[in-house]
Design a protein that fits this description.
Helices cover about 70% and strands about 5% of the residues. By secondary structure, the protein is mainly alpha-helical. Strands 1-3-2 form a three-stranded antiparallel beta sheet. Helix 9 runs antiparallel to helix 10 and helix 9 runs antiparallel to helix 14.
C-alpha cells in the first residue's frame, strides 16, 4: 500500500478515536445502537429477520447490523464492536475515494486526506449508524463501471440497495451514461444483473416471511414526514402562516409531523426527486466524451444527494451519503461544491445530537439551524447539477467547433 494511503488511514484512526472519547465528537446521546443490538441478539440466537424479528431495512442489512454482535451483545461490547466494524467500512471508503479521484482525473492525495477527515466533520454519527457500508458499496460499484466493468458495477449497486435502498438511484444514471457512450448491450446486461440481484434479495425476504416483508414496505410508506426534512420545513411554514396545524408525533422510531396536506407535500417531494434524477441521467448521457468517468461519478453522487434531500425523511446519518461528493469535488478542485458539502456536514454535527431535542420541541433557533442545513444540501444538489450542465454545454460547444473545422476543411 502506498505511503499516502497509509498516512490517510492513520489520520482516519486518530479521528475515529475522537468520536469515541473526545467531546463534542463523541456525543452519542441519540443513536441507533440500541435498535441494532435489540435486533442482533435474537438473530444471533437463531431468529430470522421479517419472520421472528421486525426488520425495517432491506434483507442484506441484517448481516451488516448483526455482525458486530458476534463479538458480544452487551451494551459496551456491542458499541465498541460496531465502532470497529464501521471503522473498517470507513477505511474502505477512504481508499475508494482515492481510487476514484485518481481514475477520474482528480488529485488522489486530496481525496484520501479529505475522506480521512470525515470523523472530524461528522462525529459519532459515523460509527453509530451502518450507512458507511452502502456508501462504500456505491463507490466500489462506480469504480467498477469507470474501469470498464459495468455489469459487475450495476450488480454491486443492486447489492448496495439490498443493504440500504439509496444506491438504487444511481442505476438509471449509470444506464444513461452507458447508452450515451453507445454501449447498449452492456447497459442491458448490467440492468439485468442488477435486477437479478434485487430479485434474489426480495424473493429471499418474501420466502422468510411474506407478511414481514410487506410490513417492512408498509412501515416506510406509512412513516410520517420526518421533522428534519425539507417537506417538514414546508409544513412548519404552512403552520406558521395559519394554513393548517402541523402536529408533532413520535412514531416509526423517529419524530415527525402530521398535517392535513402532509401527503401532498411528500408527494411533491417525490415528484421533484423523479424529475431531478431524470435530469441528472439526461446530463450524464450527453455525448461520449467522459473517458475518465468523472461525469458518471458526479451524476451518480448527485442522484444520491437528491434522494437524501428531497425525500420525506432526512435523518442526520443521510449526510454520510453526501460525504463522497464533497471529497471528490475537493479532489476535482470544484471548491464551491466541496465547501457546500462541508458546511452541510458541520451544520449537522452542530444540530445532532446536541440540539436534536430542541428541534423536536420546535424551538425557533433549532428549527432555523435545520432549515439552513437543508438549504445548504439543496445548494449542494444545485451546484452538482450546474456542474453537469456546464460540462454538457462545453461538450456541445466543442462538438460544434469540430463540425465547423470539418466544414472549413
Amino acid at each position: 500500500m502506498r505511503r499516502d494511503a497509509l498516512a490517510a488511514l492513520g489520520l482516519l484512526v486518530a479521528g475515529w478515536a475522537l468520536t469515541l472519547w473526545v467531546t463534542p465528537w463523541s456525543d452519542e446521546r441519540v443513536n441507533d445502537l440500541f435498535v441494532y443490538r435489540s435486533f442482533a441478539e435474537p438473530v444471533l440466537d437463531g431468529g430470522l429477520p421479517y419472520r421472528d424479528v421486525f426488520f425495517e431495512y432491506p434483507p442484506l442489512a441484517a448481516s451488516v447490523i448483526a455482525l458486530p454482535g458476534v463479538v458480544g451483545t452487551g451494551e459496551e461490547t456491542f458499541r465498541l464492536a460496531f465502532a470497529g466494524w464501521m471503522l473498517v467500512a470507513a477505511g474502505v471508503l477512504v481508499l475508494l475515494c482515492g481510487a476514484l479521484a485518481e481514475r477520474t482525473g482528480g488529485d488522489r492525495r486530496r481525496a484520501l486526506f479529505a475522506a480521512a477527515l470525515a470523523p472530524i466533520a461528522c462525529g459519532a454519527l459515523l460509527r453509530t449508524h451502518f450507512d458507511l457500508v452502502p456508501v462504500a458499496l456505491t463507490l466500489a460499484a462506480l469504480w467498477l463501471v469507470c474501469t470498464d466493468r459495468p455489469r459487475s458495477g450495476l450488480a454491486l449497486l443492486g447489492v448496495g440497495a439490498l443493504v440500504k435502498g439509496f444506491p438504487l438511484v444511481a442505476v438509471p444514471v449509470v444506464l444513461a451514461w452507458l447508452l450515451g457512450r453507445r454501449r447498449p448491450r452492456e447497459a442491458l446486461e448490467g440492468a439485468a444483473a442488477c435486477a437479478a440481484v434485487l430479485l434474489i434479495g426480495i424473493c429471499a425476504a418474501v420466502a422468510v416471511s411474506p407478511d414481514g416483508a410487506v410490513d417492512a414496505v408498509r412501515y416506510h410508506l406509512e412513516r410520517p414526514v420526518q421533522i428534519e426534512s425539507v417537506p417538514a420545513l414546508a409544513l412548519l411554514g404552512l403552520d406558521g402562516l395559519g394554513l393548517g396545524e402541523a402536529v408533532s408525533v413520535s412514531s416509526h422510531r423517529s419524530d415527525g409531523l402530521l398535517h392535513p396536506i402532509d401527503g401532498a407535500v411528500a408527494g411533491l417531494g417525490a415528484l421533484a426527486l423523479v424529475l431531478v434524477i431524470a435530469l441528472i441521467a439526461a446530463l450524464a448521457a450527453g455525448g461520449e466524451r467522459d473517458d475518465a468517468g468523472r461525469r458518471l461519478v458526479l451524476a451518480s453522487l448527485a442522484a444520491v444527494t437528491a434522494f437524501a434531500v428531497l425525500g420525506k425523511v432526512l435523518s442526520p446519518q443521510f449526510v454520510i451519503w453526501v460525504l463522497p461528493l464533497g471529497v471528490l469535488a475537493f479532489a476535482w478542485r470544484m471548491h464551491a461544491l466541496a465547501l457546500a458539502v462541508l458546511a452541510a456536514l458541520v451544520l449537522t454535527l452542530i444540530e445532532f445530537p446536541a440540539n436534536y431535542f430542541d428541534v423536536v420541541a420546535r424551538e425557533p433557533l433549532a428549527i432555523v439551524l435545520v432549515a439552513v442545513r437543508d438549504l445548504v444540501l439543496l445548494a449542494v444538489l444545485a451546484l452538482a447539477v450546474r456542474a453537469l450542465w456546464v460540462q454538457r454545454q462545453e461538450q456541445l460547444l466543442d462538438a460544434r467547433r469540430a463540425a465547423l473545422v470539418v466544414r472549413l476543411d
